[in-house]
Amino acid sequence: xxxxxxxxxxxxxxxxxxxxxxxxxxxxxxxxxxxxxxxxxxxxxxxxxxxxxxxxxxxxxxxxxxxxxxxxxxxxxxxxxxxxxxxxxxxxxxxxxxxxxxxxxxxxxxxxxxxxxxxxxxxxxxxxxxxxxxxxxxxxxxxxxxxxxxxxxxxxxxxxxxxxxxxxxxxxxxxxxxxxxxxxxxxxxxxxxxxxxxxxxxxxxxxxxxxxxxxxxxxxxxxxxxxxxxxxxxxxxxxxxxxxxxxxxxxxxxxxxxxxxxxxxxxxxxxxxxxxxxxxxxxxxxxxxxxxxxxxxxxxxxxxxxxxxxxxxxxxxxxxxxxxxxxxxxxxxxxxxx
Length: 338
Prior knowledge:
Strand content: 25-35%
Radius of gyration: 24 Å
Number of domains: 2
Number of strands: 17
Distance between the termini: 42 Å
Shape: elongated
Largest sheet: 7 strands, mixed
Mean pLDDT: 84
Structural class: alpha+beta
Helix content: 10-25%
Number of helices: 4
Order of helices and strands: HEEEEEEEEEEEEEEEEEHHH
């Protein structure tokens, strides 16, 4: 059974239970945008194998780049339906895996069809495509977010014109950098027989920029086409982001960072200390009870001390400093902390 289909069966049961027992996340639920470390995936286009630096060759069988945020933090891996593996699947750290593009992925066209120039291929020259559908003999590669702990993720709308334009528990998979053979191009897209291709990543169109991103909702699975224009090794960096419900006990996270979801960044640091110092000994504060209202004036808040009155006694003083000192360098989501 396909890895993500099997996981979907398990998670659908959890989703039903979660829907019944949970309430919608409100504007004051301290939802904050969090991002993983940059993760490098390695693609070998007809490179010599085995590769001593990436010793586990992934080829032929349905495979996913798994992205998830769980109770222990970020979980990013390569998962392959390997019939030779006792559990029927192989999960590999990205640095250990060589995602192999074999000769079945070769394409050579006398002209590049209209709308597909983003691949960066040239007429009459071979390029390689891992197709979004199975059965070609090339590696079928997708993205899977079905291991995510949805209970702590927040709904948000990326406003992406390519389909991620409604509120959902989205993961942003952003291309950061591509290192490959000289004059090579890399691309990711989806297509069908009727509509123009939907391009998510293309180095041929001005290099990597803010538009080189794919959104996948928690609990889902998606396949794409992956294009390469030269043989050789490609190192492709991705960073994963999502919006997470920060621990409500982390009340000292008050410094504004321009986060559209929540004023803080879910970490108590020196920026929060600086805000308390800025309002030191001020009186007439609205108190912590109104601090979240102050964050978004749409809620009618008027806290003149910007949330620095952590203990809610109407002034910024020693009690607030003590709370901050206790929480300093603490983080309100799994995987980070003092």
